[in-house]
Amino acid sequence: MPTQPWPSEWLRGLLTLAVLRVLADGPTYGYAIATTLEEQGFGAIKGGTLYPLLSRLEAAGHVSTRWEAGDGGPGRKYFALTPAGADEFTRRTARWTEFARHTTQFLTTPDADPQGDRR
Amino acid sequence: MTTDDRKWIEEMILQLRLRDVRGGAIGDAVAQIESHCALSGESAAEAFGDPRDYARSLDFPAHETEHTDLAGWARVLVPILAGVAALVLVGATAAALRRGADVEVGWGSLVSLAVWIGLVALLVRHTEFFVHRVAVGALAFAVALAVLVLPTILLPETAFTVPAPLAAALTLGLLAYAMIAQRRERHRLVDPVTDPVDGRDRTEPSGRMSRRAQDALMATEWHLVIAAVVIASIAWSVG
User: Fold this and answer.
1) Residue B181 needs a FRET pair 20 to 30 A away by CA distance; which of A79, A107, B18, B76 works?
2) How far apart are CA B69 and CA B67, in angstroms?
3) Which residues of B fall within a CB distance of 8 Å from A36?
């Protein structure tokens, strides 16, 4: 299990990519996305955070939606990546990987001020 | 769903209505809240925070919101304005017909009408402000009534006169136009909150609210006629 809780400001920046990652495995509904993210160490994602994010992805055309009747309970809204959403996931993943590598290198290199012009 | 959850959802619906989100998209948001709360066991407030903040945070594709342009507002407001003008005219016209005199249109009435247009424009532009501040809204309503009545008292001078039969025809024309135009707009204005799964009206379990809303809108047209008849009758008997 990854170390947690992660600082909340890190999670805020990464949440959209994490949701796209969950949807890359196939269509699913909001509560299941929240549960998967919690299992993956992202902490408890409140509906008030998750659904506005999903609405932005839907408005941007990155996800499509469909409703399915629930078993004796309320229906469930399934979210699926569109081709544009899949491209966005690939692009963001590449960018994040590059950013993480760059950040890690910066944080762990002993002399981060190679020009030596520190005043 | 508890009573608190229902209240929470009503508050969210109101906020989404103020954002001009279409009924179908609001129904989608409502069903999503119910679904999430049923699965997580949380209350709407626990899971989603403040209903107004939540409603403001949702994003909608362009086709799921209504963009009322100037022509759209005109379609709604001009018939109402015509109805008010008819009510202003009807009393003076009935009294003038009884006396066999011309209708005197006072400066006060003209100023009142102009003030009325300004107040409606203010209300339309700042609907959200007044909806969320009931005390301010009630105070504003009282001030607005005074502002509407004052000009007729302070400015009793006659601006111009109109022959009574012409004023009567104009009054009837305005009344008929107001009724027909409001009736035409009614169907466009009713936009029920519908369930995304089965399409039923979600405003109330049996869909009564939508029919009640339609009845209320229908009644508005007839209120206008009833008010005109009452005012004309009083003016006739007094004048």
Assistant:
1) B18
2) 6
3) none
